[in-house]
Design a protein that fits this description.
four-stranded mixed beta sheet; 16 helices; mainly alpha
Length: about 425
């Protein structure tokens, strides 16, 4: 067995076992603490709601494990099982140029993978989410979304793939540097295009019509020196009862978006506190730091791809006999997560640090106790577990565990 094949199998095994072990810890820990609401939340969360969150968390973990087993099996079939090799030989039969062969090859892999993913996707939406009362998506809406996403994916993805493949084929030794520049430019373009063009294809956005709340938000933004193009309300309740809020856009094109069900759940002061937290991410330059980190990691990724695509062992070790620019791109995309899974806790740790900083900023600009009340409501409405396993949380969670975050805010409020 080639050395790289052995290394790949070892990393697949380590990654898969790590995820299964962490999931088992989460399931056992949540189940162990299911019978009693944590003392911090005893007056605000009923035992029934606590147990619903526990059951929902466990159900999602079990579905995630099925998905992990499926995706790992599919990865091995595509690579060492000969799936990519068979598809490559089929595409070569058309005698197309390297770029057009690459586009056909990538689209075939994507299409087959998407079809195979459908059962789990349908189960997650129409069985699991339905069981816990969160799904509000009709099959018609789900199908419409899938068709739109497919058309958008083709319209946006095919030209991007062609440009990247053309650079790989024609731009010389430092093609990866040019490809990185194209990729980053594309990312910034999408940050502009998403709120202006893409999001309205899936949801309806309307101006916030609550004048009292609007004035409160505008005063907060003035205090924070934040410029926004507008405050929008999205019909998120049409698809799910999960509430949310987010910023979108770049520069002076930034918009604040509230899910309608979030506004239904929170009072004005709570909405202000939640928004102050989100503003904290901008004021503490978290968005900029994430963009810089993403740019650096993407640059490293393209540089590594530029090296391994010249190595015959890279192709042979992952089940392909004939080197090509498109084979290198697909193999790298499939295999790189296996070799970088251990970076997840580092990313999660940095994200949790940013959440604490944003909470501290919110406590300076709004009422910290109102942010606590808002978070408790969101934990309840979204059935977020109050008792996550500490190790699982440290590895995966981008936000601090509920008890830790609430304790931090309570300490800040009484400081």
């Amino acid at each position: 067995m080639p050395l790289f094949t052995t290394l790949f199998l070892i990393m697949v095994f380590l990654a898969t076992m790590t995820h299964f072990w962490l999931s088992l810890r989460q399931i056992n820990y949540v189940r162990k603490h299911r019978a009693q609401v944590p003392e911090t939340f005893a007056e605000k969360i009923t035992l029934e709601d606590h147990q619903k969150a526990a059951d929902y968390t466990i159900a999602k973990e079990k579905l995630g494990n099925v998905n992990l087993l499926f995706s790992t099996t599919l990865l091995l079939i595509w690579t060492l099982g000969g799936g990519l090799e068979f598809t490559d030989q089929y595409v070569r039969g058309f005698n197309l140029s390297p770029i057009y062969s690459g586009v056909v090859f990538i689209l075939l892999i994507g299409f087959i993978s998407s079809i195979l993913d459908l059962p789990l996707s349908l189960y997650g939406t129409f069985v699991l989410e339905e069981k816990f009362g969160f799904n509000r998506t009709s099959f018609k809406t789900w199908l419409s979304d899938m068709i739109k996403q497919t058309i958008l994916g083709l319209a946006i993805g095919v030209p991007l793939i062609m440009v990247i493949l053309w650079l790989m084929d024609s731009a010389g030794q430092y093609w990866w540097l040019y490809a990185w520049a194209v990729w980053m430019s594309f990312g910034f373009l999408m940050m502009w295009a998403y709120p202006a063009v893409i999001a309205p294809l899936f949801n309806k956005f309307s101006e916030l019509d609550d004048e009292s709340l609007k004035q409160r938000i505008e005063r907060l933004m003035n205090r924070c020196g934040f410029i926004s193009k507008g405050i929008k309300v999205m019909d998120g309740s049409r698809r799910s009862s999960h509430g949310n809020a987010y910023f979108t856009g770049l520069g002076n094109n930034k918009q604040i978006v509230f899910f309608d069900n979030l506004l239904d759940s929170l009072d004005e002061e709570e909405v202000e506190a939640v928004l102050a937290h989100e503003l904290g991410h901008f004021k503490r330059k978290h968005i900029l730091k994430r963009l810089i980190s993403m740019a650096i990691l993407t640059l490293i990724g393209f540089a590594v791809l530029g090296w391994v695509m010249q190595q015959q062992w890279f192709y042979n070790g992952l089940g392909m006999s004939t080197p090509s620019i498109y084979a290198a791109l697909v193999l790298f995309s499939l295999s790189s997560p296996v070799f970088t899974f251990f970076l997840a806790p580092i990313s999660a740790m940095i994200s949790r640090k940013h959440e604490f900083e944003a909470d501290d900023y919110a406590a300076q600009q709004a009422d910290a106790s109102k942010l606590v009340e808002a978070l408790v409501k969101l934990y309840k409405d979204n059935a977020s577990t109050l008792t996550p396993d500490p190790v699982h949380s440290a590895y995966y969670d981008s936000h601090p565990p509920a008890p830790v975050r609430i304790a931090h805010l309570n300490q800040t409020a009484h400081a």
